[in-house]
Write a structure and sequence with these properties.
377 residues, globular, binds heme C, mainly alpha, two-stranded antiparallel ribbon, 16 helices
Length: 377
């Protein structure tokens, strides 16, 4: 993928591109038009729409309804939007999420604005595509709490608006595959850019404050942030999409015990029963990408997140352990949390108080107008 991305040649940040997406010739439904914001190259968007799930108006509209519908959860209390709230930049503002019956998970809810551009879904990339991801919260006991996917299908089959909508969008009854496809299609309309940073890059020199401009220099130079949150016009999300251990997980009291147990598994396959056992232990979520790959280098590693709209999605990190952006910056000044698997790119950076607050101002210049507007779409 990296190669294909690099091969995308983007002349400049274009003005809002209005592009038409072509529907399958077999699909008679109308193609959906996405208005891409300043800063997102249209080639990039098209590249991340899979051939077997083109956007149509019927599908996107169905996906939107499903996304906001609490009837998808076991007790009718939780929708996707409960934890990915449009008024909170599609995150939830909690340290860790709360699902049916007040049950809490172990991770912080990421914004799903621009999630379509992720190399994998979830902090640890355990789902490959948006389609695969979208059906997992339904049967997660700490999220929507359904026992099985068939339960959800049966429930939706009893709602006439849904049987009609699925027929229109997919020409078939409700299936788990089409639930995933419809929600994923809707999520591919949640594209966010047109921030002060984008307008600055497009030539409006007054779009960013002096402090934010100074912060952008610290970000690229002495702060060493672009080692991982890379700035790249062809892939403008301030993330290299690589999984790294910054030591956030090492802040957990069980981390050393868990890594010792993980190492003792040797080169076991991540799908083996030993892994399932390990993943049930208290705090095992902190092992991160390791639970997906079984690779010791992935212990405590999580995907470098996009920094767009980060101002609106406190608290921070995969476990919500940093309350503010200033706290995040302090974490980096000390070089993250030391531990044997810490990414080699991280080291203490000596930044003055002013440089630190400039960095925060820079991060705030990545907030899109649409995300700030509390748009309910
Ligand atoms: C109870 C809260 C909750 C509900 C309900 C919920 N999510 Fe999430 N979502 C989360 C959390 C927490 C994560 C991160 C989990 C992890 O990484 O292990 C997440 C991750 C994601 C991601 C991956 C984003 C990324 O950057 O990796 C997507 C996409 C997503 N959710 C979409 C959905 C959809 C679609 C639904 C409804 C079908 C849904 N979520 C329901 C809390 C929730
Ligand atoms: C070694 C790679 C690396 C470097 C260098 C790095 N980051 Fe990160 N950043 C990450 C990873 C990985 C995470 C997620 C860590 C976690 O939650 O376990 C992250 C998380 C963040 C978050 C929280 C985002 C959210 O949605 O929770 C912010 C903000 C952030 N980094 C800003 C910065 C700044 C500013 C710098 C420079 C001072 C920087 N990063 C340097 C890899 C890096």
């Amino acid at each position: 993928m990296a190669k294909s991305l690099k091969s995308l040649i983007v002349a400049a940040f274009a003005l809002a591109v209005s592009l038409t997406v072509h529907a399958d010739s077999a699909n008679l439904a109308e193609a959906f038009r996405v208005n891409l914001p300043v800063g997102i190259p249209s080639e990039l968007w098209s590249y991340f729409v899979p051939k077997d799930n083109p956007l149509t108006s019927a599908k996107v509209e169905l996906g939107r309804q499903l996304f906001f519908d609490k009837r998808l959860s076991a007790d009718g209390s939780i929708s996707c939007a409960s934890c990915h709230d449009p008024q909170k930049a599609f995150a939830d503002g909690r340290k860790v999420s709360e699902g049916v019956g007040g049950r809490t998970g172990e991770r912080n809810s990421p914004s799903i604005l621009n999630a379509m551009f992720n190399s994998g879904q979830f902090w640890d990339g355990r789902a490959e595509t948006l389609e695969d991801q979208a059906i997992l919260p339904l049967i997660n006991p700490a999220e929507m709490g359904d026992q099985t996917h068939s339960q959800v299908i049966e429930r939706l089959e009893k709602i006439p608006e849904y049987t009609t909508a699925f027929r229109e969008a997919f020409g078939s009854r409700v299936t788990i595959e089409s639930i995933g496809k419809a929600i994923a299609a809707f999520e591919r309309t949640l594209v966010s850019a047109n921030s002060p940073f984008d307008r600055y890059m497009a030539g409006d020199r007054s779009a960013m404050s002096e402090a934010a401009i100074r912060g952008s220099i610290v970000f690229r130079t002495r702060g060493r942030c672009t080692q991982c949150h890379s700035i790249n016009q062809a892939y403008p999300f301030f993330s290299d999409q690589i999984y790294r251990n910054t030591g956030v997980a090492a802040g957990h009291s069980e981390f050393n015990n868990l890594t010792a147990k993980a190492m003792s598994l040797g080169k076991a396959d991540a799908s083996s029963p030993k892994f399932a056992e390990l993943s049930r232990l208290d705090g095992a979520s902190e092992l991160g990408r390791f639970l997906v790959t079984g690779n010791a280098l992935d212990l405590g590693a999580f995907r470098t997140p996009s920094l767009r709209n980060v101002e609106l999605t406190a608290p921070y990190f995969h476990n919500g352990s940093a309350a503010t952006l200033a706290d995040v910056v302090k974490f980096y000044v000390q070089g993250g949390n030391d531990n044997p698997m810490r990414a080699w790119e991280l080291m203490a950076v000596d930044l003055t108080d002013e440089e630190q607050s400039d960095l925060v101002e820079f991060l705030k210049s990545l907030t899109s107008d649409d995300a700030r507007r509390n748009d309910s779409r």
